[in-house]
Design brief:
By secondary structure, this protein is α/β, with parallel strands linked by helices. The chain has eleven helices and 14 strands. Bound molecules: phenylalanine (PHE).
Length: 378
């Protein structure tokens, strides 16, 4: 008798263990990271990926989100519209992600935002600053699209005011790649603010992506001799223009935007210049220094703004998922709209257009380093 009940008990225990072992672990929650990992602006993508992964690793070390492990799908979207759109379609249709961190470049983030909107997928771009990323033609916010950075009307104004008030500039030359939403937008916002503040844009010249020889348009700058040469493009193009301007003996102070932020910015060619940015690793706030320390320990380099904002974007997204209590993208988007998120680049609330209100920093370039100069808040 005792033997029999022992046998039954043993069977029950074995069965119970088998059932427990078979119960599937909660499915991992997938997040896609879309960033340019190759090509002309590869440092943007590498920093973005590394910043986002640092945040995700930290969440996983604490048990993930909603009790689920977080899995990442990383795609090289090349800072271009076509590859970014294919990457977005791939992660949504094949990998079945509901959440996208990216792209970096506005020109790539805009098409991704249309795909995210159509598929009701949440997109948060860490660093795309063109207004059109989060709003449609009618100026209405795309319901599931957000960004972790300020926008270019603000960035252009900060640069223009700095030129007028701090550098005492009266005239400026502006160079732009018209085919790049970010570059064209920033050029126009700078021009509008510079002229509204009493300055005059005396040279306005366009070029095409991939151009290598800028001597024809630089001749116009040489002749006009303006106080400022505004170069709102990414570092790889800025490096070429700046070096050629120096060769031609152009003395205008070079000024630019967040696109200059790269360890590969040619600091010799752009020395004496300034650019607006989202963050500086010199910020002494403990939250910034703690992030810098963790990033450096993991990757062996000082995080740039792309790394910081990708870290922030991942944290904002995961906090919103946690607050929503579900991975339903529409509920997560609502949590983002309502929430306040304390992250490295500041305390964030989103406005009706899904843009955070944030301060900008101005950085100064010397051959040795890029250093903090000023902070400007809206
Ligand atoms: N703001 C740029 C864009 O919208 C991207 C960028 C951000 C580049 C920050 C460098 C640093 O295209």
């Amino acid at each position: 008798m005792a033997k029999r009940s022992f046998a039954i008990l043993a069977v029950v225990v074995v069965l119970a263990t088998m059932v427990a072992a078979c119960r599937p672990a909660p499915q991992a929650l997938k997040i896609a990271i879309l960033a340019p990992l190759s090509g002309d602006v590869a440092t943007f993508g590498i920093s973005t990926r590394d910043g986002a992964l640092l945040a995700i690793d930290e969440w996983n070390a604490k048990g993930g989100v909603l009790g689920r492990k977080i899995e990442t799908v990383v795609e090289d979207s090349q800072c271009e519209a076509e590859p970014a759109a294919s990457a977005a379609n791939k992660v949504i249709n094949q990998d079945r992600v509901k959440f996208i961190i990216g792209e970096v470049c506005s020109k790539a983030s805009i098409p991704v935002s249309e795909i995210a909107t159509a598929n009701k997928v949440v997109q948060i771009s860490p660093t795309s600053t063109n207004p059109k990323v989060t709003v449609d033609e009618a100026g209405k916010a795309k319901p599931t699209v957000f960004r972790a950075c300020f926008i270019d009307p603000f960035q252009g104004t900060v640069a223009a005011k700095f030129a007028l008030d701090k550098l005492g500039a009266k005239t400026a030359a502006v160079f732009l790649d018209q085919g790049n939403d970010y570059v064209r937008g920033l050029a126009e916002f700078f021009r509008d603010a510079f002229e509204a503040g009493g300055g005059k844009v005396v040279v306005w010249e366009t070029y095409t992506a991939g151009d290598k020889d800028f001597s024809a348009i630089l001749t116009k700058v040489k002749d006009a001799n303006p106080d400022i040469l505004f170069l709102p493009d990414y570092y790889s193009t800025v490096n070429l223009i700046a070096a050629q301007a120096n060769q031609m003996g152009i003395k205008a102070v070079k000024l630019g935007g967040d696109g200059w932020d790269s360890p590969e910015l040619d600091r010799v060619a752009t020395a004496g210049g300034f650019f607006t940015n989202h963050y500086t690793s010199e910020d002494t706030r403990p939250v910034v220094q703690e992030f810098v320390k963790k990033y450096q320990a993991k990757y062996g380099s000082v995080p740039d703004a792309l790394a910081a904002l990708a870290y922030d974007a991942a944290n904002i997204l995961l906090m919103a998922i946690q607050q929503a209590g579900t991975d339903d993208p529409l509920k997560v988007a609502q949590a983002m709209e309502k929430g306040r998120f304390s992250v490295v680049s500041g305390d964030i609330v989103f406005d009706e257009q899904h843009n955070p209100k944030k301060c900008a920093v101005i950085l100064e370039v010397s051959p040795e380093k890029v250093s903090y100069k000023d902070t400007v808040c809206p």
